[in-house]
Design goal:
Elements (H helix, E strand, L loop, with lengths): L62 H5 L16 H30 L14 H8 L2 H63 L11 E8 L3 H13 L5 E8 L17 H4 L17 H8 L8 E2 L4 E5 L4 E6 L7 H11 L2 H21 L7 H8 L2 H5 L2 H7 L5 H15 L8 H13 L2 E2 L3 H13 L2 E3 L2 E10 L5 E9 L5 E6 L1 E4 L4 H4 L10 E11 L17 E4 L12 E10 L10 E8 L5 H8 L3 E14 L12 E3 L2 E3 L10 H19 L24
Parallel strand pairs: 1-2, 1-11, 2-7, 4-13, 11-18
Antiparallel strand pairs: 3-6, 4-5, 8-9, 9-10, 12-15, 12-16, 13-14, 14-15, 17-18
The chain binds flavin-adenine dinucleotide.
Amino acid sequence: MTKKTFTSKPPQYQENPSEPDTSLPPPPYTPQETTPLIPGGPSYAGSSYAPSGPSYTGPSYTASSRFSDNSSTAGSLPSHFPRRNRTLRHAFRELRRDYLLATYHRALDAVAARGWRPPTLRWPGSSRSQRSSECGHEVDGGRRRERVRVWVKGVRRWGRVGEEKRRKRRRVILCCNLLIWVLVALGIAVFISGRWANEGGDRWPAPPERKETVRVGIVGAGPAGVSAAYTLSTSFKSKDVSLEIILFEQKASIGGRMVTNHAFPKERLGREVHPEDVASGQIGGNSLRNRARELGFDYRLEKKLIADEVGFFNGQDIVAKLTRPMDEMSWRTWLTLVLKYRFSLWNAKQLPKGTMKTFDKLLESRSTFERVSDMTKSAGIDGAVGLGAVARLSANGVGGDYIHEVLRPQVLRQTGQYVTELSDLAISMGLQREDQCSAGYRGSFARILDNFVQRSRAELRLSTKVTSLKRELTVDGGRSWVLELQKTGHSEVKSEVFDHVIVAGPSSSLLKHIYHDEEVFYRDLFVTFLVSTKELDKKYFGGSDNIPSQILPIQSDRLRSDLEGIHEISYVGDTFGPDLNAEAVGKLYRILSDRSVSRQQILAFGGEAVLEIYEENIEHAYPLTWPRNGKFGEFKLKDGLWHTGVVETIGSSVELSWVGGENVGRLVARSLGRGVPRKQADIPKMKQVPQNGIMK
Ligand SMILES: Cc1cc2nc3c(=O)[nH]c(=O)nc-3n(C[C@H](O)[C@H](O)[C@H](O)COP(=O)(O)OP(=O)(O)OC[C@H]3O[C@@H](n4cnc5c(N)ncnc54)[C@H](O)[C@@H]3O)c2cc1C
């Protein structure tokens, strides 16, 4: 080891220097004799472990000088130690080291005396060379340490390389695993597809190249058409097939046969005649109402109609008066009627109850049927549709004048047919409605249907008549249905191609060249509205001061010719001008008849005060519902051609048509296959109807 001597003048020690002067070199070392560090301790020179190389030449302090910090002894301390506390700390550390080293070497001597090789002592904080020289292992230890250092470096490098390799190896293993799993999955898929192909042939559908669009045309936007559109759209959802539903309605508004077009414009009478004024009756059952409620669309009867008192007119007198519903009749009226018709009145009231209870099950059912006969069997009403009304009336003890004077006019008004023509179910439906028919919806019925159309996302084309229906070959060799369409007021006819066509409602003219069996026959109805400034002629109706708001003429030879074919004359309500506080412009009456009513006829009982008359012919108003057994017709007429109207072979009501439309909607969805019901969340929210039932 080279001994270094600093020749520059050593700096003077300062008591409390402001900044340590680290730039100054350490003080020169003066070689001294090896003396015991601790009085009585071992001397290095005498130790068998004394360094064999160059001897230790570092400073040697006496114990007294190390702990002394006064100025007189300051010269014996290292002059570059700047602070007292630092000096003390250093001195203490030195002392501790010396003491421990001395103790250690004493122990080494003892161990060496027994022939053991001691380990190298490492002293934290001391320099390597100092430690080595102190321990007497400077040369060998240095080499060994150098070797170890090189070895550690190598290990580190090797470790780093190994880590990378390991990462790479892990990645390769992961990829191999994935590949194996993919191969296994592919193998399973190929195996299953092979088995399926062997078993069922086409059970493995080829993936479509692009989303196929199925076009469904619905003829008629009455209850059946709307319900078919709504049910089809909500019960079919497919990733591969998109539905395009188009509703064609020949009239300017939806709602079907019981909704008239606005008869009187507001400008002429100051009050718009609501479409439903023609029906003005409660919708018989409750299925449509329940369906609407399920969708958060609650509607209620807006108000009681004035036509709650019914008079039966035989040409000379009003022979009987009833109140609707019968339960609200006064005991005096009951007494008069019971005296006249005995128990027939009560028995007739009870007649529809049992049959309609069973029928309501059909209305609430969500099952799908191919044929109407399956429907009637499943609901347990095949007996009621096969039994004649006359047999049922006599079995229930209804007879005598009651049938001729009360029941017949009631049934004629409801069904357009005579008692002898009807089945038990048809007369029950008519009588039930007759007893409830005391309130109206005043336009909200059409709005309810409109909401269903919106929810179905079907395209509605009003004032578009389907003039013909043909099955034609398409370019790709398939067969489709071609509808010829004509807009109201236009002579031009356009054609459109559809995959499926649903004829919703009575459309015998469209179907007659396609479908002959189980045809549904209809009777027409004429609706006449008249506005008069005065009430009906009292003298004409028997001279009574109090003319009932609804008159049902009893059709017989005794009836005057003016009333021939007339089923009903009803007071609907007052018509007002723009100022509702002003006096009413006139009174609105409605006449239902099986033939057109002339102005002379109307003037005979309406008087000279009649202001306006409007007549509308409702084609296919009443289906003929005679008692039938066995077959009633199928909902599917041909491949891709469906008919809801077959349900009308058993009866006619909004609810029954609604159920028929639902059934066909489900059948079409089923025939399209692969469809799954749309989630409730997918269906757009329906507009809420305010409590009074009127929507803005
Ligand atoms: C005066 C009257 C009052 C009634 N009152 C009640 C009552 O109070 N309660 C009750 O439950 N039932 C009542 N009904 C019966 C009820 O109206 C029917 O049962 C119901 O309307 C039948 O519905 P639908 O959809 O099957 O047929 P429809 O209502 O007849 O609907 C068929 C639709 O198809 C349209 N259409 C037909 N042919 C074509 C074509 N070629 N192109 C385009 N469109 C076409 C028609 O214009 C019509 O809108 C009443 C019936 C009448 C006549």
